[in-house]
Amino acid sequence: MVTTSAGKKTYVIGSRKSQLALVQTYIVRDTLQAIYPQFEFKIETMSTTGDIILNQALSKIGEKALFTKELETALENKTVDFVVHSLKDLPTVLPEGMLLGAIMKRENPNDALVLSEKNRGLTLATLPKGAVIGTSSLRRVAQLKRNYPHLTFIDVRGNLNTRLAKLDIEDSSYDGIVLAVAGLVRIDQGHRISQVLTASDSLHAVSQGALGVECRQNDEEVKELLESLNHDDTRITCLSERALMRRLEGGCSVPIGVNTKLDKEANTLWMHGLVSSLDGQNVVEYKDKISLKDADTREKREKLAEKLGSDVANDLCEKGADKILAELSHRSH
């Protein structure tokens, strides 16, 4: 934080450089600016490992903090006051001294199919045998291979615009690509969506569609500032999903899917978790729920939500998920 010559406090926000990352950071900045007109908010951009290494599949790079490490280093060095992440990219165990200060209202968490011009009007089910679908996510490949064995799945890397451009070129290798609905909507490309995938097609990634804001644990001023960004229902669902992921120790390179619903009328949180082998042949699923009726504070609700995530993860492991994950870990080393 700096004070300008005009005497205004200026907070520096760290962001990745891609269009989507910046759009997401603008959402945070503009929301804060409307609440705190007396302060200024400046954006500092940087590239992360995941932005720089584009010639390898995410699962082969072998790091968990692919899209966050450089941002967290800037936070640690106090060159920025807080950083904005796609929450699904943020590892479930934060570096010492760091805190998830805010989770904003979630966009649609599902995956979407974007088809090339020649395939418009088709769906995953009606695409011809051997049609090529691009995705950088092992989670999507594992689930979609199982449900659509007639399709071929290959890796596609790069930011959202790069991936769309790879689909749109004349001799594209791809008939379609699978991306997150949220990212497409945020960069005004929602009209490109050919099919929104349901939970029966593919469970989404942990925290997909949500924005997380990370800050220093001892920065009371920034923590108070970020509190206004929190969306309680999104916090409940995402913290539950992150607890599942933490127990399973998953990252970009593990096929873990989840679907979480908060039934506000019944005051109950539901979770459906899934772990799959890479070929989609060995799949373990588990569904559970927890009542939030007796939780009269946010802290108690969040603890119960995290308990649900851990419980679902434990049950998945009892059903064989730990063996699948151990095999994947062995294969990647």
From TrEMBL:
Residues 236-316 form the Porphobilinogen deaminase C-terminal domain. Keywords: Heme biosynthesis, Porphyrin biosynthesis, Transferase. Tetrapolymerization of the monopyrrole PBG into the hydroxymethylbilane pre-uroporphyrinogen in several discrete steps. This is Porphobilinogen deaminase. HAMAP family: Porphobil_deam. PROSITE patterns: PORPHOBILINOGEN_DEAM (PS00533). Pathway: Porphyrin-containing compound metabolism; protoporphyrin-IX biosynthesis; coproporphyrinogen-III from 5-aminolevulinate: step 2/4. Its cofactor is dipyrromethane. One of its GO terms (molecular function) is hydroxymethylbilane synthase activity. GO terms for biological process: protoporphyrinogen IX biosynthetic process. Its EC number is 2.5.1.61. It is an enzyme of class 2 (transferase). Residues 12-223 form the Porphobilinogen deaminase N-terminal domain. Belongs to the HMBS family. GO terms for cellular component: cytoplasm. Gene3D superfamilies: Periplasmic binding protein-like II, Porphobilinogen deaminase, C-terminal domain. InterPro entries: HemC (IPR000860), Porphobilin_deaminase_cofac_BS (IPR022419), Porphobilin_deaminase_N (IPR022417), Porphobilinogen_deaminase_C (IPR022418), Porphobilinogen_deaminase_C_sf (IPR036803). It holds the Pfam family Porphobil_deamC.
